[in-house]
Every structure is written in structure tokens, then in C-alpha cells.
Amino acid sequence: MTSGVNNALNILISGQHGQVSRELQQRLGDLAQLHVLGRDQLDLANPEGIRERVQTLKPDLIINAAAHTAVDKAESEPELAFAINARAPGIFAEEAAKLGIPLIHYSTDYVFDGSKDSPYTEDDEPNPLGVYGRSKLAGEQAIAAVGGQHLILRTSWVYSRHGSNFLLTMQRLLQEKPELRIVADQIGAPTWAGTIAISTRALIERWQAGQAGAWGTYHLTAQGETSWFGFAQAIGEQLKAQGLPCAELLPIPSSDYPTPARRPLNSRLDCSRLQREWQVSQPHWQQALIDCLK
What's residue 279's pLDDT? Predict the structure, then answer.
């Protein structure tokens, strides 16, 4: 899929229907010619196919917004998770380096084990708990090994009005059930995919204006912190404000809700480096939730 705008800048976006890709398409369409490659146009498990598409399109910038994000499913299909999350980003980085263009790639809080008491910085040692986190870390390492102009943007708890995510699941269940038990001991920053897209546009504009900060790895989440229970409460408040039914919420520990993949208890990421280096900052998670629901 190609956008109809005929600007000088050509951007290849891998991933078409994902939460971040959909928001990027909305927010970059007037800035550049977008070449949006979904699963049908680009098989990320096929390295030669990736090389061929990049060499044919010769973009000015690559944004890799595609990933194997099914955290629990990754435990039973590690080969596919590593093909998409580890090998493909490395190939994008190699092709970007050959063309002398930047690569923007999204990563995750799951590269950390969540045992730290304070928010993680980019200098903290990763220690993923499961296949998804390990595959995403391997993707980061593959990009960094190539070098070149790249931004690896780690985010957390992504939601939007599309796809499969906590916001949409909660909106449905809160109206269907009288009572919901929600994990209260995992802490992080719910981050609207729109926030990620808006920040990505700001980064591109700074690069275009010759005001780029240092290339490398950065944390990009909403400001503030809450638990999944707190996030569910905030979603419930929005439903009540519209006069809609809302289940009673009960906080539970992670141990009461076992999943195939372990989750980090602390998913908080310190985003001050992005503000310092690129002058790009994010809204508070509660404000972003209101903006998303508008």
C-alpha cells in the first residue's frame, strides 16, 4: 500500500495492520510517500525477500513497525519469534546501512526482568524472562552490530482503538461481567500507539531539519506509572462517564493469574534521554488515554 502524497521523502513501513503502524500511517501521510508493507507484501521470515523489497524501493527511511508480539504464543513458537523479531531487524539494518539511510525500530520493556526497584534506563543490563523478550533483545543486538543511523525505541503496554490490546479487552469485559480480577503487582506506563507515532514523527522532523540527536537506543513510553489494575480502573471511569455499565474490579497478584510467559513486575522505563538528546517528550498516560478515546 502506498500513500497518495508526492513528497520528496520516501518511507518504507513494515507492518500494515499493527497498532503502531496504523497510527504511523495516519500521522505521516502528509509528510512523506509511504510504502506500507503488510504480511501479504513482505514475509519477515524471508531474509532475501526483505533485501529485495528494500533494494527495489530504495527508501529514504525505514520504519520497522512489524513484530511477533504474541508474548505467550512465542513460548511455543520460538523459531518464528526469532525470525521476525531478531533476524528481520538485522537485515533491515544491513540494507539501511547499504543505502546510507536511518532505521527506526520498536522494542519492548520485556528485554528487562523487572527486578529493579526504579525505572530502567538505557544503560541497564537487559535480562529477558521469556522467548518474546529474548527475541526482541536479539533484534536490538543485530541492529546495533550493524551500526549506522538507527533508533531503537523501547516502549511498553501499547494500546489503541484497533487490534488486540488491554484497552479494547477491558472495555468489552467491564460491560459484560459483574466482577473482574485484575493483576495489581505489575507496574508500568500504558502507552497509546498514537503517542508513539506522534513522537516518531517529531524524531523524523528533527532528523530532516538537521537537528538529530545521537543515534542509538532510547526509551519511549507515556509519563507516569500505574498497574494493570490501575489502568483497568481508569478505563472503567471513562465508561462510567458515558453512563455505561462497569464491572467491579478486584486487585490480584500475578501468581493468581499464571501465563505461559512470565511478565516483568517492573516495566517502568526512564525516558529522559530521549527528551535530552532529541527534545521529544511524551504526555502523561492518563491524558493519552483521554486523547485516544476521543
Answer: 97
Q: Is residue 210 part of a domain?
A: yes
CATH number reported for the structural domain that contains residue 42 in this entry: 3.40.50.720
Domain containing residue 76: 10-164+190-222+268-283
3-state helix, strand, coil in the chain (%, to 5): 45, 20, 40
Total-model pTM: 0.95
CA distances to 7, 43, 211, 248, 274 from 20, rounded to whole Å, are 22, 18, 24, 31, 19
In this prediction, residue 1 carries a pLDDT of 55
DSSP for 117-173 reads SSPBPTTSPP--SSHHHHHHHHHHHHHHHH-SSEEEEEE-SEE-SSSS-HHHHHHHH
Active site residues: 132
Backbone angles phi, psi at 34, to 5 degrees: -100, 130
- Interhelix angle 228-241/166-176, rounded to 10 degrees, is 60
What pairs with residue 66 in β-bridges? none
Residue 173 lies in a domain: no
Task: Specify whether the CB–CB gap between 110 and 132 falls below 8 A.
Answer: yes
pLDDT at 2 over 90: no
**Residue 254 in domain:** no
- Spatial distance between the Cα atoms of 9 and 61, rounded to a whole number of angstroms: 8
For residue 2, being part of any structural domain is answered with: no
CA distances from 3 to 27, 42, 55, 197, 208 (A): 12, 17, 19, 16, 20
pLDDT (tens digit per residue) in 75-129: 999 999 999 999 999 999 999 999 999 999 999 999 999 999 999 999 999 999 9
**Model confidence pLDDT, tens digit, residues 32-74:** 999 999 999 999 999 999 999 999 999 999 999 999 988 999 9
Instruction: Provide the number of structural domains found in the chain.
Output: 1
